[in-house]
């Protein structure tokens, strides 16, 4: 593997090697320099018990203070690109209105530092972190928030678009729908399918409006979205299982993939929403905007498959409506697990996604924008030289990369691979339970950074453009 001639899996020239992170999970400095509160700051204030070990978002990994050191480390481990996100409530503390000049300065410094180090910054506009002032008026349920987001997006393009050439309107937009309005793992912790639908719809509309605004500015870059395209595999080929998987896919993947790439919503989903009486409120002209402003580039986040079967029992008609009225989840016997996160590991999933994009979504330009393995208690793998021997992560990445490589051989338009994540960070309600980074962060030593074995390995992969 150290010898270039021994490379078995070679990647195309210019392949993007790097990682991804988000503002709230890394920056820290949640209450300084004029940043407004977002839903995470607020939720932690009122319910700290919901966060692993009671650790909140106020400090996280201190990227706000340590970005120079961190970007240097990224360069050291072979990054040529990195996805960050802008914190809306740092840039515009109330969500609408005044722009925080301290934030402008911070993001300018960060972006410039990336470019100075030969790392292309990919920038996301929304990574789960709704400004609290906007959540108070209903967050994505309220159309005013769509307008506020459009202004925020335009502000970002105007401020940073001269240097940032890859923008992403949302990260995993289905997750705030699931977490905030169905399954109780994001604030505001409501269980309300009608609101969930409205939130999803407004998010898509907001994305299309941001894309439109971006194109009006003629900034000569690309704009897209990052989706977690968890494939839905049926338990069997029995038509009932297959139907369950198709509907599950419509709820959780195609709900955002189809409007983002094709400018239209999946027929199966619309049918169910109509039948069950949950259509969102749509205004005249919306569909036109969605149709005419599809993405240039798609980020694909992939962690685990979703396995689905036909319903075992008749659903309770009195229970609140949930997508699971149409399918049940299925734990495949013999599946490989990451026991820490409780997620199945199924490497071929990444290939299936890329093949689907090639065959059914005009082989849109894409990249693996997140993939990774969260592990609890990694300190026990630290050797006498202080390096965490995370061979399991190297195996996880290489097994996925082999499938990405196969997809490329078969004509997939996939341009890069970003690990989740660069350094251990704050994973929402799991806080620092599971560690995902190429670089460890020691919370007991002021966040001291140490490159793990996987980071050293990745450097060679990136240098050799293969392994
Ligand atoms: C994705 C998110 C990331 C990140 C990752 C790991 O869904 O885009 O923000 O957190 O998952 O998941 P978790 O933090 O829940 O372990």
Specify the helix fraction band: 25-40%
Assign the CATH superfamily: Glycosidases
Distance between the termini: 6 Å
Structural class comes to alpha/beta
Put simply, the count of helices is 15
The general outline is globular
In the CATH scheme, what's the topology name? TIM Barrel
Bound molecules: 6-O-phosphono-beta-D-galactopyranose
Q: Main attributes?
A:
8-stranded parallel barrel, binds 6-O-phosphono-beta-D-galactopyranose, single chain, alpha/beta, 3-stranded mixed beta sheet, globular, TIM Barrel, 467 residues
Describe this structure in words.
α13 (348-360) packs parallel to α14. It contains 15 helices and 17 strands. The strands form five sheets. Strands 1-2-3-4-5-7-12-14 form an eight-stranded parallel beta barrel, surrounded by four helices. It has one domain (4-464): Glycosidases (TIM Barrel). The chain has helices at 23-26, 39-46, 63-76, 88-91, 101-116, 132-135, 143-160, 174-181, 193-216, 239-262, 267-276, 286-292, 348-360, 391-409, 453-464, and strands at residues 16-20, 81-85, 120-124, 166-171, 222-228, 232-234, 297-301, 306-309, 328-329, 337-338, 343-344, 366-370, 375-376, 414-420, 434-435, 439-442, 448-451. It is of the alpha/beta class. The chain is globular, with a radius of gyration of 21 Å. Bound molecules: 6-O-phosphono-beta-D-galactopyranose. 6-O-phosphono-beta-D-galactopyranose is lined by residues 22, 25, 171-172, 175, 228, 301, 341, 370, 374, 420, 427-428, 430, 434.
């Amino acid at each position: 593997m150290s010898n270039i001639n021994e490379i078995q899996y070679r990647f195309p020239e210019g392949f993007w090697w790097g990682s991804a992170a988000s503002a709230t999970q890394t920056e820290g400095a949640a209450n300084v320099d004029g940043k407004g509160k977002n839903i995470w700051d607020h939720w932690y204030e009122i319910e700290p018990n919901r966060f692993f070990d009671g650790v909140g978002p106020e400090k996280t990994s201190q990227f706000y203070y340590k970005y120079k050191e961190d970007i240097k480390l990224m360069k050291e481990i072979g990054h040529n690109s990195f996805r960050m996100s802008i914190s809306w409530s740092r840039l515009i503390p109330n969500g609408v209105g005044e722009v925080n000049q301290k934030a402008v300065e911070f993001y300018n410094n960060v972006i410039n530092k990336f470019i100075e180090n030969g790392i292309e910054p990919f920038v996301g506009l929304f990574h789960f972190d709704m400004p609290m002032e906007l959540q108070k008026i209903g967050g994505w349920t309220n159309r005013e928030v769509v307008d506020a987001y459009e202004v925020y997006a335009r502000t970002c393009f105007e401020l940073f678009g001269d240097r940032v050439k890859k923008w992403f309107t949302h990260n995993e937009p289905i997750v705030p729908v699931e977490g905030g309005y169905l399954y109780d793992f994001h604030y505001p912790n409501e269980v309300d399918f009608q609101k969930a639908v409205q939130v999803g719809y407004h998010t898509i509309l907001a994305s299309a409006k941001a894309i439109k605004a971006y194109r009006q500015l003629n900034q000569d870059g690309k704009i897209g979205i990052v989706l977690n395209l968890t494939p839905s595999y049926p338990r069997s080929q029995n038509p009932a299982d297959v139907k369950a998987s198709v509907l599950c896919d419509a709820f959780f993947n195609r709900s955002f993939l189809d409007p983002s790439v094709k400018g239209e919503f999946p027929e199966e989903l619309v049918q169910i929403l109509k039948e069950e009486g949950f259509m969102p409120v749509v205004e005249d002209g919306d569909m036109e905007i969605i149709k005419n402003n599809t993405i240039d580039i798609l980020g694909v986040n992939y962690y685990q498959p979703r396995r689905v079967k036909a319903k075992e029992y008749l659903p309770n008609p009195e229970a609140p409506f949930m997508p699971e009225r149409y399918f049940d989840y299925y734990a495949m016997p013999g599946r490989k697990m990451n026991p820490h996160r409780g997620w199945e590991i199924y490497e071929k999933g990444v290939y299936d996604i890329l093949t689907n994009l090639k065959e059914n979504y005009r082989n849109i330009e894409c990249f693996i924008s997140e993939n990774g393995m969260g592990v609890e208690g990694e300190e026990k793998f630290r050797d006498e030289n202080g390096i965490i021997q995370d061979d399991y992560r190297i195996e996880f990445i290489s097994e996925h990369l082999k499938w990405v490589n196969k997809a490329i051989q078969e004509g997939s338009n996939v341009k890069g691979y970003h690990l989740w994540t660069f350094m251990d960070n704050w994973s929402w309600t799991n806080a620092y339970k599971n560690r995902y980074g190429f670089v460890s962060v020691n919370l007991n030593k002021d966040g001291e950074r140490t490159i793990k074995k996987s980071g050293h390995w990745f450097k060679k992969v990136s240098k050799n453009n293969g392994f």
